[in-house]
Amino acid sequence: TEELLRINGLSTRFFTEQGQVNAVDNFDLRIDRGDVFGIVGESGSGKSVTARSIVDLIESPGEITDGEIWYNEPDLADAVREDRPEAVDGTFVDLRRISPERRRSLRGTSFSMIFQDPESSFNPSLTVGEQIAEAVEVQRRASANPRSTRARTRSEEYSLGSFVLSSFLPSKRYVTEASRERAIELLELVGIPDPVERADEHPHEYSGGMLQRAMIAQALAGEPDVLVADEPTTALDVTIQAQVLDLLDELQSETGMTILLITHNLGVIARMCDRVGVMYAGEIVERGTLEDVFDDHVHPYTEGLLGSIPDIEGEAGRLQPIDGNVPSLLDHEMGDRCHFADRCPNAMEDCLEHPPEYDAEGSNDHAVRCVLAAQEYDERRAIPDGYFDETR
Length: 392
Ligand code: SF4
Ligand code: MG
Known about the structure:
With 392 residues, the protein is of the alpha/beta class. 32% of the residues lie in helices and 21% in strands. The protein has helices spanning 47-54, 74-83, 100-105, 128-144, 154-159, 163-167, 177-189, 195-198, 208-219, 238-255, 266-272, 290-294, 300-305, 331-334, 387-391, and strands at 3-16, 19-32, 36-40, 62-72, 88-89, 92-94, 111-114, 226-230, 258-263, 275-280, 283-289, 358-359, 367-368.
């Protein structure tokens, strides 16, 4: 296996009137090429912000403030080495240190993203086929001429909220016969029946599951290395959910692409992933193989999550509520302690300092951010009474 992505110390903050929100806090991750890596966590844990940070979709008042996103791409490394040697390490390129134009040109061809709500990825006034053909054409032009600025498709403009502008753009701007044919192939690949006819229909003529498939087709237009899927099946009913997961699974084995799958559903993780990171309050608190995390976990938060038996057929796969709420992630409220300390049944005095990341026993990729990974219980002192009331 070959390492594809190496993320070090990534932090994304939102600067709000209430204060600084540390949505992603000192986030580390390694993903191998061809893996399906899952990130699981409750809503508000920072999963989506993490995904958007990786594909460069953070908007004001949000900002990536720290960290490195090393991406293993030899051609890109060669292209960047001249101008920005500091952004290159062997065949790896730090995406945070390349120009915004170059970063944008990777969208679609290196990284693609799919979302929970496919309607947000399609412009309602254009046919599905036309939008996918545009994505094909834009990616084709961007790869043919890496130094040019990559244009946006009208579905991208729509998702970014520039609908008024995009509806006045000349129609069939980028659609050629070849890209239209490719769009139909892609629709067929994702299992749309009668793709030639369906290509000429508008998004509202598709069912939810079909539109989800079409969104996947659109995301595959540039043959991305990495598909980032943010809760791709959450809005679908259970049968369709299973079909879309099967589709992602098939596409992964056919294309060898890497998938970063964001979900709150442990059943989805168990079914799809090779490795998993458990996210809590902006950081990965435990990560490893499925076995490390499901069977040999150390972190009390992971333990709490697994209180439910994952089962894709029903609601049991939803995360089990743990007493207390996900913390606000406001910098001044979180302080320096372990992010889970106020909900953790095992919290002791040494948890009032933020624990470093430990490698646990077993596979060397299994890492845990908790003092329990390093210390014996009997060495630990209780937290003084009333501590959390005073700091809240
Ligand atoms: Fe619980 Fe302490 Fe581990 Fe945090 S460091 S999860 S509070 S035992
Ligand atoms: Mg989310």
